[in-house]
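Batch manifest, entry 17 of 40.
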Amino acid sequence: MLKLGAAQKQELLEFARRLVQVPSPPGGEGGVAELVRAQMQALGFHEVRVDEWGNVVGTIRGRGRSSVLFDAHMDTVPADPSGWRHPPYAAVVEDGRLYGRGASDMKGALAAAVYGVGLLAQAGDDFGTVHVCASVAEEAVEGPALERVLERLQPESVVIMESTGLDIAVGQRGRAELTIETLGRSAHTSNPALGINAVEKMAAVIRALADLELPTDPFLGPAIAVVTDIVSEPFPGLSVVPHRCVITVDRRLVVGEEPEAVLGQVRAVLDRLAASDPEFRARVAIAEDRLTTFTGREIVAPNFAPAWRIDSEHPLVTRARAALRDAGQEPRLVTYRFCTNGSGSMGRMGIPTIGYGPGREEVAHTADEYVDLEELYRACEGYAALATRLSRF
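Output type: C-alpha cells
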C-alpha cells in the first residue's frame, strides 16, 4: 500500500502548485494539458495520449483483468482577483493549505491521481489497466468530453475525482438549462392596449412554474426549478411595449428524468396558460452549449446532464470502501450537490461510477479556494489503493 514519504509529498505539492499557476478557462486548458502530459511521461506511464479534443489520458497496465478510469477536468471558472486574499494563480501554501483557483476544483485531485498512479506503475504490476484522464470543458458542459474518452477506452468503472472530503460519492442530481420564450406585439406605451406585453405574459409563466409539482429522490433529494435570468426585447424599452421575453430556468434533475419529460411538464403549463388567454404564445427548449476546445474542435451539446446514482451495495462501492480502509481511511457514502462528468459516464453511458476526491465542494468557485495538504496527500494514497483494488478483478 502506497505511503508517501516527505520527499514524495513535496514533489506532489510542487506539481499541484504548477497546475494551479496556469490559468485554464474552458477552451484554454492547453498549458495545463502540457504539464500533465509531461508529468505522466516522467513518472513512467506506459502510454500517454492527447486526443483531438485536448483530453490527456495516461495509462498503466499490469496483470489484473479489469480496467478503471479516473477523471479530473482541467478547466476552471474565471477568478476575479479583487476578492482574493492571495492572488488566484500564485498557488500560495499557508497554514497547511494550498490556495488558488482550481486547488479544490480540481487540480489538486488531478495532481494526486497522476502522482499516485505513476508511483503505482513504478512499484510493480499488481493491478489491471488504469487510466487517468485530464478532461476539458467540464465547467462549460458536463460529460461530452469525458464520453469521448470513454467511447474509445471502454473501462469497466469510473472514479470522478471531484471534491468529496475523501468520502465516496454515490450519486448526484442532474441539471438542465431551459429557455422559455413568450411572444407579444409591440406598441407605444402611451397606448399599451394596442400591443401584447411579452413581459406580462412571462410573469404568468413564472407564477405557474412556482406551483410545479416536481419529483423527489429519497437519496438525492428534490428536483428544483429556479429562474436565473430574464431578458426582454427591445432593450432598453424606450416607450415600447416589449414584443419578446426570454427566461432561463436552472432545472435540477433526479434519476430517471429524461429531456422530453422535463420539456413536456413545462409545455403542459404553457398549454394551460394558452387555453385561458387567446393572446398567449410561448415555447420552451433545452439550451444548447457551444465551445471550441484549445485544439480547435467545436463541442455542441444540449445543456442536459442526467442525474445518476449507484447502489451502496454495488461491487464498485464495496471494493472502493475496502480499498480506502486498507489505506487507513474511513469514507462515508455521500452524494454530490452539483453536476459532474458522472452525468456522462453513468448518467448517459451506464458505466458504474463513484466519486472520490480531496477538498470541500463548498469552496469550489469561491475566492481563496483551497485544498488541505493532508487531504491532498491522503487522496494520492487513496487513488493508488483504488487503482489497485478496482482493476485486479
